[in-house]
Design brief:
By secondary structure, the chain is of the alpha+beta class. Helix content is 32%, strand content 22%. The chain contains 6 helices and 6 strands. It has helices at residues 3-26, 34-45, 190-201, 203-209, 213-235, 250-253; strands spanning 61-72, 88-101, 112-124, 130-139, 156-160, 183-184. It has a 6-stranded antiparallel β-sheet with strand order 1-2-3-4-5-6. α1 packs antiparallel against α2. The longest helix is centred in the N-terminal third of the chain and has 24 residues, at 3-26. It is globular and about 60 Å long.
């Protein structure tokens, strides 16, 4: 991609972030869209995000960091499956670092050089004690083959606990704690990560937002540009998948797909 093409690509990505933030703000899903504006400006004008221990080739990549997008849980929408039962979940937040590659026209390559997404929920016990839960999605570093672990590390994976949650000291009772498995997952940029959180924690709000054209368009475009090469690359290992007769309901496979 030439210099003018890269500039146009970054501008389009920045415009998408601004449009998505405006859609969330206009529909009262967030109280400020400044993190989206800041991320858009960084994407379009730099500087690139700095990731400790990761070398970034700025000539071939674009990127942004978006911090602490908070969704408050309405008091009349108590989150399901909260334990202990007397505890409350009061907010869910999303933060992300996204460093992408300039894509070829045939879209057939990994769209990212680095990706990490943190989902943090906060709440309180009945006595006011603060409580925390966390999930983390990232792109596994695969450059140094000599340092690859023996355990399965899908290149994009969710992991419970992530970087925010620490196990308490003391007696675990009958709970045996193991290193949490890395669950293979579709890549999630900031747009898809936020849509993922809304669809799991605030489904009513997400359903309303999907009727809003700017929100719908942003999510659908991200799904097409990010999920399509991922899914096609997986399917490619089976001969003749392109001519197969597909009868499996895609909405049953992935309810978030638009």
């Amino acid at each position: 991609m030439n210099k003018s093409g890269k500039k146009k690509f970054k501008r389009e990505m920045a415009d998408q972030l601004r449009k998505f933030g405006s859609a969330l703000l206009d529909n009262q899903a967030i109280t400020t869209k400044k993190p989206f504006d800041d991320a858009a400006n960084q994407c379009q004008n730099g500087p690139m995000p700095v990731v400790k221990g990761v070398k970034i080739n700025t000539a071939t990549t674009w990127g942004y960091e978006i911090a602490n997008i908070v969704f408050n849980i309405p008091k009349d929408k108590k989150a399901k499956g909260v334990y202990p039962e007397e505890a409350s979940c009061e907010s869910v937040s999303v933060s992300a670092i996204v460093i992408g590659n300039y894509l070829r026209n045939d879209y057939a390559e990994d769209p990212y050089s680095h990706l990490e997404l943190n989902v943090v929920s906060k709440g309180k016990r009945k006595d006011g004690t603060a409580m925390l839960n966390s999930w983390h999605l990232d792109r596994h570093l695969t450059d140094d083959k000599s340092k690859q672990p023996k355990e399965a590390h899908p290149i994009y994976h969710f992991q419970y606990g992530g970087q925010k949650l620490r196990l308490p000291d003391g007696n675990y009772g009958t709970h045996l704690v193991l290193d949490t498995p890395r669950l293979m997952h579709l890549p999630l940029d900031a747009v898809l990560g936020i849509d993922f959180v809304l669809s799991n924690f605030l489904g009513d709000l997400r359903n309303r937002l999907c009727d809003v054209k700017p929100y719908y368009d942003c999510v659908k475009e991200s799904q097409k540009s990010i999920w399509r090469p991922y899914i096609h690359s997986m399917a490619k290992i089976w001969t003749g998948y392109g001519e197969a007769n597909y009868d499996w309901d895609v909405k049953a496979i992935c309810p978030q797909i638009l």
